Protein: Diaminopimelate epimerase
Amino acid sequence: MKFTKMHGLGNDFIVIEALENVDYSELAIKLCDRHFGIGADGLLVVEPSGIADIRMRIFNADGSEAEMCGNGSRCFAKYVYERGIVKKEKMAVETLAGVIMPEVFVENGKVESVKVYMGNPIFEASKIPIKSDKQKFINEPVKIDGKVYKLTSLRVGVPHTIVFVESLDENMIKELGPKIEKSSLFPQGTNVDFVKVEDKENISVRTWERGVGLTLACGSGACASAVASAVLGKTERNVNVHFKAGKLLVEWLEDNSIYLSGSVEEVFRGEIEL
Structure:
């Protein structure tokens, strides 16, 4: 089986084209293993679509299928454009979260960066979903291991819960992340974004991804963090979101639409026996 390894700021993916009679969940677990497989945060599958230019399926490293992925969609757009599968610089991509519209920016035939329309943020508690008698879950106190944290939850393709912190301590993130992810508050689980506000136009983020763990970057997490920061008056609506390996630009427009922009890279291509 042929594959391509790609990443957006270190958030890495294995991209393959559709296969017959394959359990993609099992394949994702096998391929994404960093010791016995290729190693990645997720598996992206290129499939034909009846409603868009192309269809993207996303499987996390634990085999669960995700509705959407910001960095994954940017890697996917670079892949299908450079392979000539989709010959449009602005394309429609079907996902479980709906149709998204990545736009590739090309220099000398190579995609250098990708901007993707990420939809509108959803704050309605029942649609995130979150078990709460409140219509929205914004800056709500939640006790975890005897300590109270203020959480803000929203959906940007997938559920995200934001925790604002003074410092991005990895030990704290690794301890608290899975407890929030698997909290009974979230019947489908949640991604958890730890956010340090630098100034009105810059935030630093570390994301504990549902079904993956701590990742180097997360596109939908960048969007959710930027929107939550703006809603709480901590930043402007256009924000540079800094991860360990670089930054993404999130633009939350007045019409409520979110756009995510940043670089994306191919690491290598290869073949593996299944």
Q: What stands out?
A: Residues 2-117+262-271 form a domain with the Diaminopimelate Epimerase; Chain A, domain 1 fold (CATH 3.10.310.10). The helical segments are 24-32, 70-82, 170-181, 219-231. The first strand starts at residue 2 and ends at 8.
